[in-house]
Amino acid sequence: MKTVNKVFWFFGRSGAGKTTLALRLCAGMTDRHIPVIYLDGDELRATLCSDLGFKSEARLENHRRIAEIARLLTEQGLNVVVSTMAPEYSHRDLVSQILGRKLVWFYIHAPLSVCIERDPKGIYRRAQAGQINLLIDYPFEPPRPPESGNYIDTAAQHVDDCYQAILEAARKHLNDFAI
């Protein structure tokens, strides 16, 4: 049976725990000698997508670029772990269209109040101070099937329990991902 490389896409609000959990999945795959690469939305925003703004159309293009990179990497024999906000249905629809059956969604959820409290990058503080105009009032459209299939609530579960749920879901998609 031929192994199909997958794209494990973590999405949710800033501060929900996407990066933490995505990096743990990458480390777990690497420890098991499963070829994987991590694409961080913030890093890509600062480099490959630095020419884009934050309006909906620019965010859509940002996600298109990331999805195309992920598709190319799977064709080169890698599994890809991505973390981005992907706040709108149109963004996730485009990603799904580009990646098709290679895509596995992980919705990393925490209430906005928890994300504001965590604020690991200081984004919410800057937004509240008027230094940046995004995120707090920016609509986050809740997931719908199949995006909601792997729902991880980081406010209700310990990070280790969240990671175990992610491993269980990943195991279903990778033939050689033995834990």
Summarize the structure.
This protein has 179 residues and is an alpha/beta fold. Helix content is 44%, strand content 15%. It has a five-stranded parallel sheet with strand order 2-3-1-4-5, with helices on both faces.
| Helical proportion, percent range | 40-55%
What is the CATH topology descriptor? Answer: Rossmann fold
CATH superfamily: P-loop containing nucleotide triphosphate hydrolases
The dominant shape is: globular
The CATH class name reads: Alpha Beta
- Number of H/I helices: 7
SSE blueprint and pairings:
Elements: E1 7-11, H1 18-31, E2 36-40, H2 41-46, H3 56-75, E3 79-84, H4 89-99, E4 103-109, H5 112-118, H6 123-128, E5 151-153, H7 159-173
Parallel strand pairs: 1-3, 1-4, 2-3, 4-5
Structural key phrases:
5 strands; Rossmann fold; single chain; 179 residues; five-stranded parallel beta sheet
Describe this structure in words.
By secondary structure, the protein is of the alpha/beta class. The chain has a single domain, classed as 3-Layer(aba) Sandwich (Rossmann fold). It is 44% helix and 15% strand. It has a five-stranded parallel beta sheet, sandwiched between helices. It starts with 6 loop residues before the first strand and ends in a 6-residue tail after the last helix.
